[in-house]
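Supplementary Methods S3. Input chains for the assembly prediction are listed below.
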Amino acid sequence: MRKQVELHKSRFLTELVEFLSIPSISSLSEHKPDVQRGAKWLADSLELAGMENVEIIKTEGHPIVYGDWLHADDKPTVLIYGHYDVQPADPLELWETPPFEPTIKDDKIYARGATDDKGQLFIHVKAMQLLMEEHGKLPVNVKFCIEGEEEVASPNLAPFIKENQEKLSADAVLISDTSFIEKGQPAICTSLRGALALELNVETANTDLHSGSYGGGVPNSIHTLVELLGSFHNNQGQVSVEGFYEGVPEPTEQLRNEVAEIPFDEESTKKQLGLDVLYGENGFTFQERVGIRPTLEINGVGGGFQGEGLKTIVPSQAQAKISCRLVGDQDPSEVFKRIEQHIQKQKPVGSKVTLNQLIQAKPVSLDSTNEMIQKAASSFEKVYGVRPLFPKEGGSIPIVEVFSRVLDAPVVLMGFGLPSENLHAPNEHLHIENFTKGIETVCDYLLDL
Amino acid sequence: MRKQVELHKSRFLTELVEFLSIPSISSLSEHKPDVQRGAKWLADSLELAGMENVEIIKTEGHPIVYGDWLHADDKPTVLIYGHYDVQPADPLELWETPPFEPTIKDDKIYARGATDDKGQLFIHVKAMQLLMEEHGKLPVNVKFCIEGEEEVASPNLAPFIKENQEKLSADAVLISDTSFIEKGQPAICTSLRGALALELNVETANTDLHSGSYGGGVPNSIHTLVELLGSFHNNQGQVSVEGFYEGVPEPTEQLRNEVAEIPFDEESTKKQLGLDVLYGENGFTFQERVGIRPTLEINGVGGGFQGEGLKTIVPSQAQAKISCRLVGDQDPSEVFKRIEQHIQKQKPVGSKVTLNQLIQAKPVSLDSTNEMIQKAASSFEKVYGVRPLFPKEGGSIPIVEVFSRVLDAPVVLMGFGLPSENLHAPNEHLHIENFTKGIETVCDYLLDL
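Predicted structure tokens for the full assembly:
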């Protein structure tokens, strides 16, 4: 299909630019209309690709976009999942080109959502269109189920899947929302960490107070916050919340070997990130720390005066965002309880502390020997000339565990991103080569099934 | 003078409203034109009050406003100091009326700067005007030296004083920028804490990273920040920076008794602030903690994602604002060095940490038996019917130490604020009763000298 892809490449890119310029940020309520616009744009695009029964399905949050083509008789059915929502774009000042004015530069397309996940999702839409144009039909039955809430942990998709098992039933779930190991080395991820995201709020007095008149004599919300946040780790890089590691499997020799097989260049990683050292839990390698070990990271913190210059106050309010990555049999609800208990135990006097859960997702493990996954590996090999590796991914795609369990189907994580593509960060981008080769790979895979 | 004050009260208040509506925030560069407008307004007001040689003196920062009336021959000379700049107004959402739309309610005037220090400064301007209108002259020689940088620690006034010793020479320096003990109980403050304000910046990677792909494997700027900030205090409420307490005098029995004499109602303070407990350095009372003990307070903290919802990043940048109050012979430069050493010692691997000094001021102590201070006490007593107390103030007016040392004159801290007037906080206000009685008190004092 390489020729056909090349023929239509510039048209496809023009369409992708249009898709990427919609700021469909699911976590910010002021962008709700943009998320809706994103759903509408995607639905139109599915119809253009020849999908039938295209629906924009309302939920309590952002809509799900569905479409199918079911005329391949006894051929297998593939359910394609992806998400059209994106992360917030701040800090805006660090973007070299505006996040929602997609810019093509050095064979990459720069925009929020370029790799996570609009660009990768669009690979499938365009693959269907090419197959239809080429053969007048698809080689397998296809269902698209695309959500607009992945970046807020899919609160409405899980119930939707449970209520629509028949409608969504499939022989494989195909998802492109993960990364290569590095440029030229494809990967099919076979393990995803679970997640638990929290918001911690501290309140002391009912107003900010003058640090001259009250400083030293009243509780300070930021002192409480940093004391609590500082208590989450010990100096071995371990999480010091009692019970946090319950359910975390002791890594077997085999697992450690598998992880070690994934190529990783510490020096070039440090150089790329501008770091003198990498840092994490004692006794584990970088790949283990980010792949098979659980973590607790503070994602944001704020309180008191943050402007230019100074304001000598005792701040009355402070807050932090925290997220955990979970593995093995760690249960997000249980981890939440443990953190709550930890805070109650550590909490200094004079502060009101509240902990809210923002999202949770269970860890998931997939069987790399499954036929559906092995065939995907073959298609990768055909297009890229290199057989994919099967890494343990550090990130979380909460819905993978639900698809796998509720639909009882193998999930094929056929990612076309690169780890260097700044997902969730300023200057997110997608290599156009992987966009076009991605379309080839998907076409080959479906033709092969 | 009560009658004359009452006669002109409404005109004076209209003028004060005009003065308070100028957002002369010295710490925010976008308000530079407003600060200049404030200086011009004040200069016009001094001329209206009959002052001569009125000048707006340029500095490297915001201008100093000078004016004098020197025709009282061999009578003493009083230098009046105040500041026309104000604190930032945020958090704006907590103001019940807009900070720069002064509002009169329940005999109070609400606005940023109402009590700190425009309202108190304006007492002197209007006192001069009344004395001039009444007697055609002033009973003493008067010099006004008003700055626009008090809230950023007077970086240009100190050199100005040193270069203009002759021009500013006086028998007393009169300042209204402090508070009563409580409504009806005036106070002449005889001790001010010094100050040291700092900005702490932490940087790790050159960009925010995805907490799924990198979480647990790279340094997190907020982890470093909270570890450092959390290390500044021990669980006794003491500052744990080595050498911090050098130069802090062991409080004598007499000093502790003096401090204990200042009325203080713990229960009503807690109730007013919405606090279950007060908190501070072990072994000291609330009044000691905020009056004669040094402190280190975190005034603000920020880093990573602070918006609505979540963003699962490993943040690469985080910062904090810190300020110390100093007493006795503590030297701000020495304390800065100690904090720097502490940070170098505590700093975790993989972080670039920088510490910048924003302001510094030495502590100051005044002799309450001085005649100029005792006469001020008598004027307070005449107008309010209560003799003032002589408390140790927890705040810092950095320039007091400079006036006292360079001009070798007693400084009279004749404050008309109330501790409940929310200075540096939302809903700052001034009791109009203290504005009018303040004018009376100042007139009486000058007539008495």
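The longest helix of chain B spans residues 2-20. The two ends of chain B are 16 Å apart (CA to CA).
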